[in-house]
Design brief:
The protein is mostly beta strands and 373 residues long. The protein contains 3 helices and 31 strands. The two termini are 31 Å apart. 53% of the residues are buried. It comes from Streptomyces rochei.
Length: 373
């Protein structure tokens, strides 16, 4: 990507219109591609291509996924902006939401959340910024992190209703718990262009850790509403030039170890997974993947990482990919999915080991799918 400070919305648009998957999708045995980890080893295994089953459809720009201990699954929907927004004009609406699946129940359990999108011609896909990840609120409702792609000034220019964009907030009263856009605008920790685009969050103590893909930071939101830069991960120094970090997925293990995925500027084969043990400096656990957009821990304490596109973002959209990563050695093994993952953006693993992915995520025909590996 030419400028990693561009909002994730622009990356989605550059990647083109989303594809679709059938219900379910299966294929025969395939040879997984060899994947290198930080020690330079590769792992190639013959595995049957995973079955992908659609669990929910007609989702509005679905983003992050959270698997709950009771078997439920939450999806953050960035929404569709404002209905009838003039073409090429950016408008704010209240179409963001939280979608839940549990047993036979499917539906939106929080609605009316801020969503911003540029107006498009009839029939064109709407790409929105809004809720990008969600966790349950211990006191009722949900805690959401919302994307933006801008600054406090650009947010204010959007007008009334935009105040939760680019923040961590709770759905029951829309109270802002941590304003990552204000943090980036005031402090600009990496010294680059001022640009906030929060992406994922995880609980940490009495507060939250959130990745800001636009600001190249991981920010702590404290219980008193203050923010602090938790990690400023370095650029990826490549032979073709330095790539911006663009942190995306984040997960925290029971022992306090934090894992962060990055896109490394969208460079092919350059994405990294960082491991930060309590009291230690970040270290690279694994690399060699492309466009990592999210990750989660499985029941064995290892990682499942999701690639938005296993190829360069320029040109027609290419399929995404899933990887298993050993949390100790950093060994990477691809989970064969063929061309079944189309512009996926979120992954979660439930207590039974089932993997859920948001798929076909550009527009209002998004899906939640289950990958049976």
């Amino acid at each position: 990507m030419a400028n990693s400070r561009n909002s994730w919305t622009k990356i989605l648009l550059a990647a083109g219109a989303a594809g679709a998957v059938a219900v379910p999708l299966t294929a025969g045995p395939v040879q997984a591609q060899p994947q290198a980890h930080r020690h330079g080893h590769t792992h190639t295994h013959t595995r049957t291509e995973a079955t992908v089953t659609v669990v929910a459809s007609q989702l509005n720009n679905p983003r992050g996924v959270t698997a709950l201990g009771d078997g439920g699954v939450l999806v953050a929907e960035a929404g569709a902006g404002l209905a009838d927004c003039p073409v090429d004009q950016t408008c704010v609406g209240t179409t963001g939401s939280v979608y839940k699946v549990k047993g036979s129940f499917q539906g939106r359990v929080a609605t009316g959340l801020a969503s911003t999108a540029k107006g498009v011609a009839p029939g064109a896909p709407i790409s929105a910024n809004g809720p990008s990840d969600v966790v349950p609120d211990r006191f009722g409702g949900y805690v959401v992190v919302s994307g933006l792609g801008g600054t406090t000034e650009s947010r204010a220019a959007l007008g009334e209703g935009a105040q939760t964009l680019g923040t961590v907030f709770r759905t029951r009263d829309h109270k802002v718990l941590a304003d990552l856009t204000d943090h980036e605008t005031r402090l600009n920790p990496d010294g680059g262009d001022v640009h906030a685009n929060p992406w994922r969050l995880t609980r940490s103590g009495s507060g939250y850790l959130a990745t800001d893909a636009g600001a190249n930071t991981v920010v702590r939101g404290n219980a008193d509403g203050t923010t602090a830069t938790e990690y400023l991960l370095p650029k990826n120094e490549l032979p073709t030039g330095a790539a911006e970090t663009v942190p995306t997925g984040i997960a925290k293990a029971a022992d306090g170890t934090v894992y962060v995925a990055d896109m490394s500027g969208g460079r092919v084969g350059a994405s990294r997974v960082w491991k930060i043990a309590p009291g230690q400096q970040p270290e690279i656990l694994a690399t060699g993947m492309t466009n990592l957009i999210d990750l989660d821990l499985d029941r064995d304490g290892d990682l499942i990482a999701l690639s938005y596109s296993a190829a360069a973002l320029a040109g027609p959209p290419q399929p995404g990919a899933l990887f298993e990563i050993d949390a100790d050695s950093g060994a990477v093994t691809e989970i064969p999915t063929g061309d079944q993952l189309k512009q996926p953006t979120g992954v979660a693993v439930d207590p039974c080991g089932k993997v859920y992915v948001t798929n076909n995520t550009l527009g209002t025909n998004g899906q939640l799918v289950r990958v049976n590996r």
